[in-house]
Each structure stands twice: as C-alpha cells, then as structure tokens.
Write a structure and sequence with these properties.
The protein has 218 residues and is an alpha/beta fold. The protein contains 4 helices and 13 strands.
Length: 218
Amino acid sequence: MASKPLLAANPASSRCSRQPASASLEFETASMALKATIHKAQLQLSDMDRNLYCDHSVTIARHPSETDERLVVRLLALALNAPASPDESPLELAKDMWEPDEPSLWQKDATGRVTHWIDLGQPDEKRLLRTSARVERLSVYNFHSNALAWWKDLESRLTRLRNLSVWQIPSKQSQGLAALVQRTMMLQVTVQDGSVWVSDDTQSVEITLQRLRGPTED
C-alpha cells in the first residue's frame, strides 16, 4: 500500500512584512504517496488591504484526482489567509484528499490545537457542525457553479455556527485560474479594495470573492 503524504510548514521561515519586502514561508513534503504529482509554487503576496507582503515557497503532493482548478484555489486560499502577525503560527497545507478527517489547509497553535480550518468545495452539514465545535475559525471556499443552491440549502441550519465564514469564487473565474497551473509556478497574488488578481508572466485572472456568510459577533 502506498504511503500517504505528510505536508507541513517550516515554522522558522514563516515571516511576513507590513512593508513591501521579501519574506518566505516554505512548505515541504516529509513523505508522499507513490502516485502523487509534485508541484512547486512561488507565491508573491501583496495584500494592500491588510498592508501585508509575503513570499511563499510551496511544495504540493497532488492527489491523482485533484483538478487544476482545485489546486490553484487551494493556493489562493493559502495566500488570502496568510497570518498577518509574525507571532502567529503559519498556515499549513493539510491533506484532505488523502485523509477525510483533515481540511485543505489549517493553522495550529503551539499546543497543536487547530485555530483555523479551511475547507474547499461543498462540505456537508455534519462536517461543518463537527468542525465548528473544535476550532476557533472555520472557512469554506466554494468554487462550484451551484454554490448558491448548496448554501441556500444549508444556511438556515447553520445559524448557530458563529465562527463560520463562507466564500464563493465564481466558477468561470476559478476555471480561469486553472490555466495558470504548471508543475513549477511563479504566481503573484494582489489584493486591493476587496478585489484579487492572480497572475503569472503571461496572464492575469481577476477574482471577485463573494462572502455568503461571515463570522457572527457576540
């Protein structure tokens, strides 16, 4: 039986800056499945809304069934949720497609407790209820064409989840992101006034995130 991939961040290189400067966050695979495809990405983040500038070096052991679209949405979620403070633990790639009890990405504190859990796609009600009770923040990035119908069906049953955020990426835009995927990528992610641009040396894709649900204040 093939071994499963273990994806982890190197905390020592988890540095971001409040000024435009080079900072790095490296992700490495400790072990990877025999059938995994390895992708490497250099992400340059310029988040002017948060005054946050980071460089991320990412190595991904890609599951055989993961599409280009889902892969690049995972990278986008990594960039958009990069911790703003150097005192915070880094955001890490998890292995949900290998281990169903893990998210797509997560952030843990020094004790190993999950503080931010990020799922992609359309998790069901049971998964969201169970996860919300265990973490400080729960985020979902949905990029499917039927996102609004999925959320309309769930929304009324999840009103008590005060730590849940749900975002929709228009499917045409996420499909446009798929064209950026290569085995080795250099991507720039720019955030300004709520708009997001993801680009490489040849093309740029604008993303208009729609917030379907935000965390509820006490």
